[in-house]
Amino acid sequence: NAGVTQTPKFQVLKTGQSMTLQCAQDMNHEYMSWYRQDPGMGLRLIHYSVGAGITDQGEVPNGYNVSRSTTEDFPLRLLSAAPSQTSVYFCASRRDAGRLGEQYFGPGTRLTVT
Amino acid sequence: AQKITQTQPGMFVQEKEAVTLDCTYDTSDPSYGLFWYKQPSSGEMIFLIYQGSYDQQNATEGRYSLNFQKARKSANLVISASQLGDSAMYFCAMREGRATNKLIFGTGTLLAVQP
To answer: Which residue among A72, A80, B41, B98 is buried most deeply as judged by most CB within 10 Å?
Structure first.
């Protein structure tokens, strides 16, 4: 049981490049989300999903796309990277039932856009 | 409108003493959950404790307890017997409703435990 995994751990992009941040969980969690954390701030929600085939926008969705074709995977795509997207990105998941509180976070991806 | 407020950017505490980290929230949804996470310098987000809006008793997890005052909309984290390893950033967060994974985070409190 690996929990929530994210790849890559670090990435440097040039302005205008595109890439996909990978997120996977092996806990059969229905709910998954993507957050970004900027210096001196808490995490802000980018996109989230309540199950395979269902996604919705969070607080800061512009410039990002997501899809949820399987329960396990929730990739985040940067369409055309901008310096403002330099941040640490966290993926999270939780179950629908059972202990409602606990959410599991991945280790994060540190992205720099030059 | 900011829905989670952490008014203490930084706190100091002596080792073995207790410390309270403040968190106030704002919501009109009667069903919500409140969380505390710890983020050490290594960067990962570590879940500490959860309080549901309908929970009758304050949540406790080992040395962590959540002082939930619903009428005042506060959810303060109490760490008893502080340890050097408790030095980290602490975030309060809220989830409105049940069928969602949307968390709203505060700006965090940096705790430094002194020997």
So the answer is: A72
Q: Which of A30, A45, A54 to mutate to test the interface with B (most CBs of B within 10 A)?
A: A45
* 42-101 in chain A: CB under 8 A from chain B: 42-45, 48-50, 58-59, 88, 90, 92-94, 96, 99-101
Both tokens of A22, joined, read 């990978």
Mutate to test the interface with A, among B5, B8, B32, B45 (most CBs of A within 10 A): B45
Which residue type sits at A70?
T
- Tokens 């410390």 belong to B19
Is residue A98 pLDDT above 60, yes or no?
no
B82-93 tens-digit pLDDT: 999 999 999 999
Judged against a pLDDT cut of 60, whether residue A97 lies above it is answered with: no
Q: Identify whether A8 is preceded by a cis peptide bond (ω within 30 of 0).
A: yes
pLDDT of residue A99: 52
Chain centroid, CA B70 distance in Å: 14
The pair of three-digit structure tokens given for residue A33, joined into one six-digit string = 């989300």
CA-CA-CA-CA torsion sign (A62, A68, A73, A79) = negative
Nearest to A107 among B4, B44, B108 (CB): B44
Helix (H, G, I), strand (E, B) or coil at A64: strand
The chain A residue lying nearest B97, using CA atoms, is A100
pLDDT band at B38 (very low <50, low <70, confident <90, very high): very high
CA distance B84 to B37: 17
